[in-house]
Fold each of these.
Amino acid sequence: MITLHHLNFSRSSRVLWLLEELGLKYNLVKYERNERFRAPPELAKVHPLGKAPVIQDGDLILAESAVILNYINAKYGEGRLAPAPGTREHDLHEEWLQYVESSAAFPIMLKLIGGMTGGLTEGLDRFTGPSISKTLDYVAAGVGQGPYLLGEIFSLADIQFSYLLEMAAHGGLLAKYPALTTYLEQLKSRPAFVRAVEIGGPMTPPKA
Ligand SMILES: N[C@@H](CCC(=O)N[C@@H](CS)C(=O)NCC(=O)O)C(=O)O
């Protein structure tokens, strides 16, 4: 059975949501962020990076949320939350799935972490501003009429985007993006998402 190492207010909410979405049985080990919003040292005993999410399945230990989502969906979800491998749709879905952490997260998280740690320098602010606009414009165009990234088909890419968009909303970055706000609300209204929040808490901390 899968064990999910879950940190409060973190990307491991994605994995918890997927486990609930697929109706799987799992063990949950919870960790609490410290006063500097960092993971506690116990998490580094599970994986050297000491970050969440991490899963254990038998003797396999995996970090990186996109990899974990793909692994669980393929091994325990009959692949039903992604287009079939070998198809064009599969590659386009994979592009969205990987884009979230590989590119989209960087300027958004830089801006938000900057805000949490005393503010960005003027130079960094000039860098992140256009990058965030380009990122959010791109995702909004991708979602189009929605309700999901793949139209009517809910997929792993939606789960992967949820944390980043929730963080963006928390930082006030979605104000000019009503379509992304609607998309995020659609995601958060799924019963499995609601269950995941009941079990593991919200993705973002209460506003200061
Ligand atoms: N790219 C990784 C990022 C993992 C990551 O940065 N996790 C954060 C939580 S959202 C973490 O554990 N931070 C605690 C710390 O660095 O102390 C993924 O998608 O899984």
Amino acid sequence: MADRIAPHARAEASRSFAGQRWSLADIPWCAIRHDAAAQSEAFFYLVASASLMESATDLYTQNLIEFFAGDDEVTSWLEDYWLPEELQHGKALRRYVETVWPQFDWEPAYLQFVEEFRPYCDMALEVARSLEMASRCVVETGTASYYTTLSRASPEPVLSLLARRIVEDEVRHYKHFYRFFRRYRETEAPSRAAVVPALWRRLKMSGGDDSFIVLKHVYRSRYPGSAFDAAVYRDVRRQCRNLVGDHFPHEMSVRMLLKPLALGPRVQRAALPVAIALARRLVP
Ligand SMILES: [Fe+2]
Ligand SMILES: [Fe+2]
């Protein structure tokens, strides 16, 4: 199968960073089954949206690093591990998109997306570091769940493999943020009544403005001149839900979301089935 990656992207991919666990060279791009990948437009939307979103991680990283200024363990991990890994997700997904859907002009779509998305990146952080760490746990839960769904649902083996590599990173990110959350919980002692709204605020953001904006730019680049409004957005989301909804890891997501609440074993046992049932109804 022809390998369509541009030479400059190949050079990008060969750059390594500290502690790198995998690189683009580990993905068997030539084994992509184009017939399987191209059978559903919804897969295109899911992979292309993720490629734009991951590639834009550096837009809001500086905010986060400044918020944790003075905590060298956190800031150096964010700079040296977390950011390079998120950007690698973007590069790998971009390469997948450009290989399978070469007619999609990635770069202009990305630039237009960034122009609209940038103002949203001056995001309101939580009032306390412990709460921001809890909020970051929600983000990593969301990405771990997204790629788990993608890896399970994909009819194309290389996309499944790539999504699994990304899941491993996202789960590891979650563990780091959770560890940092526990450390700040020792000193800040946030009440459960403060942690719950922090988790909820972040949870409400998923599927909000970010997802509308990214999908808009993917759609417009795919169908130049076409309007993208709330009705089109709902329709594309419905296509994606129909395709992958059965594969969403409800139990894993709920367990990861509840963890920062530090519920006792009895409460956890009682809450878990209710929360999982609720998650099955709500997402996706
Ligand atoms: Fe990521
Ligand atoms: Fe992550």
